[in-house]
């Protein structure tokens, strides 16, 4: 093989490597696309196993990185008292959540999981977190409602309770 054809071959090989290294365009990961189009694209790519996994929420005690990857789990929950260890630090919590998330992001479609936690008295599963007297929240709401109504006003903008799968705000 001549020197010229060898360098041509080398150049072609380099081109192939560059093309192979470029990530495939995935519409569902493109934030510039409309949400509906992204959902449609993602749903088309998902297997039945992936769809089932995404609809499942498991408890932290069984949520290992391997389980997340094997079953494409959509969500993990720390129920009351479900902690990574006794008196676990905030760092231990972050490492727990990041470890699970890393596994989810490494799956074929890279769908992130949603981690949820019971946080009814403040972030009460976490050692040293601020604990609030949550029983008072209802009384505060009642007193505010009564006093607002007593001044003839039917509509108030005040702190409220809101819960959803995406998280709870107190
Ligand atoms: C809890 O708070 C105490 C007092 O500030 C501190 O010494 C301790 O390191 C904290 N522990 C954790 C796990 O955050």
Describe this structure in words.
There is one protein chain. The strands form 2 sheets. The protein has a 3-stranded parallel beta sheet, with no helix packed on it. A two-stranded antiparallel ribbon has the order 4-5. It has 2 domains: 1-45, no CATH class; 48-169, no CATH class. The radius of gyration is 25 Å and the shape is elongated. Helix content is 45%, strand content 10%. It is built from 6 helices and 5 strands, in the order αααβαβαβαββ. By secondary structure, the chain is mainly α. Strand 4 and strand 5 (167-169) form a beta hairpin. The structure holds 2-acetamido-2-deoxy-beta-D-glucopyranose (NAG). The site of 2-acetamido-2-deoxy-beta-D-glucopyranose has 4 residues, from loops.
Keywords:
170 residues; mainly alpha; 3-stranded parallel sheet; two-stranded antiparallel ribbon; 5 strands; elongated; binds 2-acetamido-2-deoxy-beta-D-glucopyranose
Can you summarize this structure?
The chain is mainly α and 170 residues long. The chain has helices at residues 3-21, 35-45, 48-54, 65-71, 90-105, 135-150, and strands at residues 57-59, 75-78, 114-117, 162-164, 167-169.
């Amino acid at each position: 093989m001549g020197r010229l054809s060898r360098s041509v071959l080398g150049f072609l090989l380099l081109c192939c490597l560059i093309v192979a290294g470029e990530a495939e365009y995935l519409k569902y990961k493109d934030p510039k696309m409309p949400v509906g189009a992204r959902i449609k694209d993602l749903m088309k790519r998902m297997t039945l196993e992936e769809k089932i996994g995404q609809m499942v929420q498991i408890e932290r005690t069984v949520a290992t990185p391997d389980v997340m990857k094997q079953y494409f789990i959509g969500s993990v929950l720390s129920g009351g008292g479900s902690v990574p260890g006794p008196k676990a630090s905030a760092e231990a919590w972050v490492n727990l959540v990041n470890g699970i998330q890393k596994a989810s992001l490494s799956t074929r479609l890279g769908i992130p999981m949603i981690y949820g936690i019971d946080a009814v008295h403040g972030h009460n599963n976490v050692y040293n977190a601020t604990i609030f007297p949550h029983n008072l929240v209802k009384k505060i709401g009642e007193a505010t409602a009564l006093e607002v109504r007593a001044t003839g006003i039917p509509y108030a903008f005040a702190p409220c309770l809101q819960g959803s799968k995406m998280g709870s705000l107190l």
